[in-house]
Design brief:
Layout: H1 2-13, E1 15-17, E2 23-25, E3 29-33, E4 54-56, E5 59-63, E6 68-72, E7 74-77, E8 85-87, E9 90-94, E10 97-101, E11 104-106, E12 129-132, E13 135-139, E14 153-154, E15 172-173, H2 184-189, H3 199-210, H4 216-219, E16 227-228, E17 235-236, E18 242-243, H5 262-310, H6 317-323
Parallel strand pairs: 7-16, 9-15, 13-14
Antiparallel strand pairs: 1-2, 3-10, 4-7, 5-6, 8-11, 9-10, 12-13, 16-17, 17-18
């Protein structure tokens, strides 16, 4: 939490208030690290939940205190104003360190390191849709949209970048990573008015920071919760399936007192009940053969004695003649 507050202060220091508008952001480095971020995880983009939401790709943030990266899931969010597009954050190597360039909103998509985030962000610009007046039109060739709910769509396959699946590319710009340079249109976008990430986006990053399973030291660069359909919504695993959510943030924290937490206790109780349910049929089946085998000697003994009891002795021939 302490480090996150520092990051917020650094980020807010890069903003200034534009008259009659949201906070404007200047392009710069908000935090730096001496080790490269892990590769981008491969995951399927969840479906857009609401008309007008835009996709913000997942990224690796950094905790200075822990000296560790943590994954901020990709998420659908509401833009600050209609007509604004999102330029993703990215890591760039310069001067012996990896610097984090904060993402921002603007009328055009600027330079984001040439990183292929997928979902319309193939390294240059954005191909996932465009604004038409006050409505956003989605390009279903590259973004995951439920067309039974959202009808303002079109198909443009010329911008396909691995469809809605994020490629497992290097997650930084510089030696050993992506070596792209800003294009003229991206340089021009740098002079646009840039709007800061929304409060929901900042809350989204804070929630990721509180989830200890999101840290690279815990997930080895392969987070299980990679994306969300909205801020505070459902988590999705790399296969695009809903992942179970913990009841609170502490359930994701490692247990340090040697005692099982409530989630572990509940799971153990469920496992025990399941094992008992499986054991009962086995005990019942095992008892039946034992009863059957125990009756077999008694039945055989009765069968052996029964003919002897019913059969009458035959008279001796000599004795019959003597009686005559």
């Amino acid at each position: 939490m302490k480090n996150f507050a520092k990051a917020c202060l650094l980020m807010m220091a890069a903003f200034f208030m534009a008259p009659g508008a949201h906070a404007q952001i200047s392009i710069g480095i908000s935090i730096s690290a001496h080790i490269a971020p892990p590769a981008l995880p491969v995951y399927v983009q969840p479906a857009c939940p609401t008309d007008g939401y835009l996709w913000v790709p997942g990224y690796w943030a950094y905790d200075n205190d822990a000296e560790d990266y943590y994954w901020v899931p990709g998420v659908w969010v509401a833009p600050p104003n209609p007509g604004l597009l999102w330029t993703p954050a990215y890591w760039g190597y310069d001067g012996g360190v990896y610097g984090f360039h904060t993402g921002y909103w603007g009328p055009h998509v600027g330079f984001y390191g040439g990183i292929n985030y997928g979902g319309g962000y193939g390294g240059v610009g954005f191909g996932g849709g465009a604004w038409s007046g006050g409505s956003f039109r989605y390009n279903t060739a590259v973004v995951n949209v439920n067309t039974t709910v959202i009808h303002n769509t079109y198909v443009d396959r010329s911008v396909i970048n691995n469809n809605v699946t994020v490629n497992n590319h290097t997650s930084f710009n510089g030696p050993g990573g992506v070596t792209a340079q800003p294009r003229p249109q991206e340089l021009a976008a740098m002079h646009d008015q840039h709007v800061a990430p929304t409060s929901q986006q900042m809350s989204h990053q804070q929630n990721a920071h509180m989830d200890k399973t999101s840290f690279a030291s815990a997930n080895h660069g392969k987070p299980t919760n990679v994306a969300m359909n909205k801020v505070g919504g459902a988590h999705f695993n790399p296969q695009g399936q809903r992942a179970p959510r913990a009841n609170n943030a502490n359930a994701n924290r490692p247990n340090t007192n040697g005692q099982p937490n409530q989630q572990q206790h509940t799971q153990q109780a469920n496992d025990n009940a399941h094992n008992d349910a499986q054991a009962q049929p086995q005990q019942h089946n095992a008892a039946q053969p034992q009863q059957h085998n125990a009756q077999q000697p008694k039945q055989q003994h009765q069968q052996q004695r029964q003919p002897q009891h019913k059969a009458a002795p035959k008279p001796h021939p000599q004795k019959q003649e003597h009686e005559r």
